[in-house]
């Protein structure tokens, strides 16, 4: 084992990779997805925009994420991750500076669609999860569970910082300062801590010593082309299953405060419901991530979907504030598990060699579900004055998502995702047997298990 393999007494270097990814994801997601709402009012006032038009910037951000993710994923598989992530931080800062200087909403929208969304994808969650998939295998669920917390933590840390900057510098100055903070912190974290692969330090994933001879080394993992991914049933099953459930979760989060206000709880207590749901989801991400190393991930996904369904039933019952707050605290523990299960299922089925490309392409499939669900729940309320129909539809989608995930063919226990044709598993097409239910390529008509 090389001298740089472990940092400190007994600490595997991969955990420092997770720490760097945590900070980068916290800043990238916290500075965009969670802080966006702070700029809606000043933009509306300065440019005379309606709230709907101002909120259109968030749609631009989501579309940008979907467009750039496949490209960034391929770059992460072909170029040094440090270069991609630092380049992303530079683009992030440039985009925020352009918005701060722009005198036209159109220029601002193009900046969000271009450098801001591209920079966020390149230095945030996609890059961090790609690195984590390379550095961990046996403890991949735990590592990705920790990393998944970063998106929620970003919602706690960055918006208050942004609000403070806005109070001191105005909204334009705050954008420039936030872009600079992200550039400096990400560059330092990535430059000091990130290394592409454990093999760079003479290690195998999880800190095992590198094999003494080629015969002892595990077989190389498969590299996936876009065409092979699109012909693979597991790709579509994971994308549709997790995408549908994540979309419902995001629609519920976006509507929880209006739901609480309409129920007569008041804005402050309604906001407390979101805080309880988000905070409990942090622990849920960590718990599900740890369990994912020990339990069939399809069963875990079923449990998460069941909790999602239970929460929807609670909402349909129009409960009082205290019962609803208890439900947010308890059921939110499991709802937070969808994201780490998405990451670990994908890594198990497709390996780490092309993880960036796989996740980037999958993001392009998943993102429209989120956009459509947020639009759908708003349309339901506008037409009926209630959210009940949307909740009922989401109950149905929870069942559909679970059914799709149970069609996923997992690699055999201990087989990983590394074997090549001649002894291939779920990542390399046509595994010879599955420890889960008997599944076949017919899970998605017309698709192969390539």
UniProtKB/TrEMBL annotation:
Pfam families, A to Z: MFS_1 (PF07690)
All copies of domain Major facilitator superfamily (MFS) profile, residue ranges: 16-413
Entries under CDD domains matching the protein: MFS_YcxA_like
Domain of life: Bacteria
Transmembrane segments: 12-36, 56-76, 83-101, 107-131, 143-167, 173-194, 235-258, 270-292, 299-318, 324-342, 354-377, 389-408
UniProt xrefs under InterPro entries: MFS, MFS_dom, MFS_trans_sf, Proton-linked_MCT
Gene Ontology MF: a single term: transmembrane transporter activity
Keywords from the UniProt entry: Membrane, Transmembrane, Transmembrane helix
Span list, region Disordered: 413-450
Annotated protein name in UniProt: Sugar phosphate permease
């Amino acid at each position: 084992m090389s001298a740089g393999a472990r940092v400190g007494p007994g600490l595997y270097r991969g955990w420092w990779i997770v720490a760097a990814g945590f900070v980068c994801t916290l800043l990238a997601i916290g500075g965009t997805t969670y802080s966006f709402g702070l700029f809606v009012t000043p933009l509306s006032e300065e440019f005379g925009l309606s709230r709907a038009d101002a909120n259109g910037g968030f749609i631009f951000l989501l579309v940008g994420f979907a467009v750039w993710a496949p490209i960034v994923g391929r770059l992460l598989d072909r170029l040094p991750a440090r270069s991609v992530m630092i380049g992303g931080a530079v683009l992030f800062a440039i985009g925020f500076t352009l918005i701060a200087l722009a005198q036209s909403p159109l220029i601002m929208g193009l900046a969000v669609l271009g450098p801001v969304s591209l920079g966020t994808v390149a230095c945030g969650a996609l890059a961090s999860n790609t690195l984590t998939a390379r550095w961990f295998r046996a403890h991949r669920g735990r590592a990705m569970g920790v990393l998944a917390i970063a998106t929620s933590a970003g919602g706690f840390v960055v918006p208050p910082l942004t609000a403070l900057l806005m109070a001191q510098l105005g909204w334009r100055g705050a954008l420039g300062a936030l872009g600079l903070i992200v550039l400096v912190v990400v560059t330092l974290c990535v430059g000091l801590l990130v290394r592409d692969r454990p093999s760079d330090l003479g290690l195998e994933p999880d800190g095992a010593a590198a094999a003494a001879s080629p015969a002892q080394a595990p077989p190389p993992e498969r590299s996936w082309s876009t065409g092979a991914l699109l012909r693979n049933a597991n790709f579509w099953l994971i994308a549709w299953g997790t995408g549908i459930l994540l979309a419902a979760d995001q629609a519920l989060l976006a509507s929880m405060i209006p739901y609480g206000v309409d129920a007569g709880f008041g804005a402050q207590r309604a906001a407390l419901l979101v805080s309880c749901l988000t905070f409990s989801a942090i622990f849920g991400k960590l718990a599900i991530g740890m369990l994912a190393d020990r339990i069939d991930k399809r069963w875990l996904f079923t449990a998460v979907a069941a909790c999602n369904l239970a929460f929807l039933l609670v909402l349909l019952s129009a409960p009082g504030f205290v019962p609803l707050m208890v439900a947010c605290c308890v059921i939110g523990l499991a709802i937070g598990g969808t994201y780490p299960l998405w990451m670990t299922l994908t890594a198990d089925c497709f390996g780490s060699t092309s993880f960036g490309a796989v996740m980037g392409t999958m993001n392009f499939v998943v993102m429209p579900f989120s956009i459509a669900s947020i639009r759908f729940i708003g349309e339901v309320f506008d037409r009926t004055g209630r959210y009940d129909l949307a909740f009922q539809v989401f109950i149905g989608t929870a069942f559909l998502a679970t059914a799709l995930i149970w069609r996923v063919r997992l690699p055999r226990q201990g087989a990983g995702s590394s074997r090549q044709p001649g002894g291939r598993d779920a990542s390399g097409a046509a595994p010879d047997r599955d420890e889960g239910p008997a599944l076949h390529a017919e899970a998605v008509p017309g698709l192969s298990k390539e």
